[in-house]
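Appendix C reproduces, verbatim, an entry submitted by the partner laboratory led by Prof. M.T., so that reviewers can inspect both the input and the predicted structure.
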Amino acid sequence: MQENDYGSLIERWKVDLIRAKARRFGFRRDELPDIEQMLVLELLSVTYAPAQPGGASERTFITTIIDRRLTNIRRDRRRHCRRTSYEARSLDSDTVVAEEAGLQVHHAPDPGLCLDLEQAVMGLTLPERAICQALSEGRSQTDIARGLGCNRSTICRRVASIADKLRRWGLDAYFPNAAATDPPKR
């Protein structure tokens, strides 16, 4: 791996700190040069000026910036992986999502349903999508509530909201018996 040479643009200790932190955050060796360049540019755009005597040192200031940026990069990658894994789901998981939303499926879903359901799910909020994803993985509402740190009743309300949205988007047309099995409104 060839190291970047920044000459007199930035102190060497800052570049070494970026590399050490990126390795601790779990980035691969082949990713280090790109991350290093990104962070060097960010560090060049900020200036350290202690607000008060005895305030944070320059090293603490730089470390905070690096940690925040590396955390954001890692979070964005996880989000991208979740989005990619959602798009790569099998057709069977669409059936599970439909069933959990209160729609009965008695046959393999047709391609039109899969496309409509995928489009509808992409129109849901991120928490609703997370619930749909967990339901498609076969997790119970109690497990989902524990994972999201909320009450089971909250998950029940959100599942009911998802089912309503799916009905409003016309997905109940694929399930003619779904109206007969709807729970009574409270």
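The mean pLDDT is 76. Additional entries are available on request from the coordinating office.
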